[in-house]
Specification:
The protein is 28% helix and 28% strand. The protein is α+β, with helices and mostly antiparallel strands and 177 residues long. The chain has a single domain, classed as Gcn5-related N-acetyltransferase (GNAT) (Aminopeptidase), CATH 3.40.630. A seven-stranded mixed β-sheet has the order 1-2-3-4-5-7-6.
């Protein structure tokens, strides 16, 4: 069994993180998804996440296998939800954004381990509610959310660079513990 754990990213990790993000962008493009196809997330976004101590790494046998941003704060993108509603709209929640696994580690279910570790970390710090969103064409992320216990709650729109408004539509998921 491999040694698998999470840790906060540091600025020197930025090059490796951006390589993983670039690989994820290519996979999304291959799937026909407009998600992450207009320069987002860029180096400045990830560096901001790192400096805010919100960027996490999945480490497998001492190597960076994945990256994600964990934010415990109200997300303005989640204020307006259509075709459903949040189950808990009053308590604090943690949101997992910008998650990507290095394709060299594909098929090992590391995304689920990563999400589980981020949830456990947040739970230990008093958070009981979690949110995540993804484009309707991102079937991998939808499967990861559902297999991690998240429930589809409706549709939101994110504020990211896009060609048209519907490219910013996201399926919204919530987990309440």
């Amino acid at each position: 069994m491999s040694s698998v754990y999470i840790k906060r990213a540091q600025v020197p990790d930025l090059t490796t993180i951006m390589k993983i993000i670039s690989q994820a962008q290519a996979m999304l493009k291959e799937d026909g998804s407009p998600q992450w196809q207009n320069g987002y997330p860029d180096t400045d976004t990830i560096k901001h996440d790192i400096l805010a101590q919100q960027c996490w790494l999945l480490i497998v046998d001492g190597k960076i296998a994945g990256t994600a941003t964990l934010i415990v704060a109200d997300d303005p993108n989640y204020h307006d939800i259509t075709n459903g509603h949040w189950k808990n709209n009053t308590d604090p929640y943690a949101t997992i954004h910008r998650i990507a696994i290095n394709p060299d580690y594909a098929g090992q279910h590391l995304g689920k381990i990563f999400v589980s570790n981020l949830i456990s970390y947040s739970y230990q710090n008093g958070i009981r509610n979690f949110r995540i969103d993804t484009h309707q064409l991102n079937k991998r992320m939808q499967a990861l959310a559902k297999s991690s216990g998240y429930v589809h709650r409706g549709k939101i729109y994110v504020d990211e660079p896009a060609i048209n408004h519907e490219d910013n539509a996201r399926l919204a998921f919530e987990l309440n513990l």
